[in-house]
Amino acid sequence: MPIKESLQNIKSTLPNHVTLVAVSKTKPVSDIMEAYDAGHKVFGENKIQDMVEKHEIMPKDIEWHMIGHVQRNKVKYMASFVSLIHGVDNLKLLQEINKQAIKHGRVIECLIQIKIASEDSKFGMDPEEASEIILSEAFSELKNIKVVGVMGMATFTHDKIQVEKEFKRLKSTFDNLKTIKTENCELNIISMGMSGDYQLAIDCGSTMVRVGSSIFGARNYN
Ligand SMILES: *Cc1c(COP(=O)(O)O)cnc(C)c1O
């Protein structure tokens, strides 16, 4: 199916309060421009270098989301333009994002990645760790970042019951963390759900879905 049609099909099924991040990783600029020309402006990449290259040559009203694991030494390359960093899972990374945001006179919005999957390979903090960090003195000094929500990735499995359990865990973590309101922390986003499970994620409370292959087709990593 053409990109424009897939995009419109998915958008027509999303409730108004859910933001669609079109995950364009590995896809060429020509594919992304098809989605852009169909009116879509929010794209997600998982490699900083790829996102930087695409940002340089594409229209400047695109909102670029970093959805992948972030290496501290690469934050500087995206600090001038990134609109939301989904995968923040430690205080040192928050401190680096803050430092780079200061250089550009910006406040960079971040989501705390919570580990909800049972697989060891998935990054993220435990809920307890997240609240400890948000309540810490060191965190309160970070005036150029703002934590606006949480992000999670469910286990890669066909077991819907397990995925649902993990999504509900993220929702209840969000509900708990939401009670903490500080100058640089005010949660209103739950980023969960991908091509295979975004409808279930929305049923469990997602407000932001990250959909790639259902829009752009299968990825080829070669
Ligand atoms: C690739 C990716 C997605 C999109 O996956 P699809 O199954 O293609 O929709 C969503 N979130 C993250 C973090 C990803 O890396």
TrEMBL record:
Named cofactor requirement(s): pyridoxal 5'-phosphate
Domain of life, source organism: Bacteria
GO MF: pyridoxal phosphate binding
Keywords for the protein's UniProt record, in alphabetical order: Pyridoxal phosphate
Domain Alanine racemase N-terminal residue range list: 3-219
N6-(pyridoxal phosphate)lysine found at: 25
One Pfam short name: Ala_racemase_N
Acetylation recorded as keyword: no
Keyword presence, Oxidoreductase: no
Family of this protein: Belongs to the pyridoxal phosphate-binding protein YggS/PROSC family.
Name of this protein: Pyridoxal phosphate homeostasis protein
Species this protein is from: Seonamhaeicola maritimus
Organismal lineage: Bacteria, Pseudomonadati, Bacteroidota, Flavobacteriia, Flavobacteriales
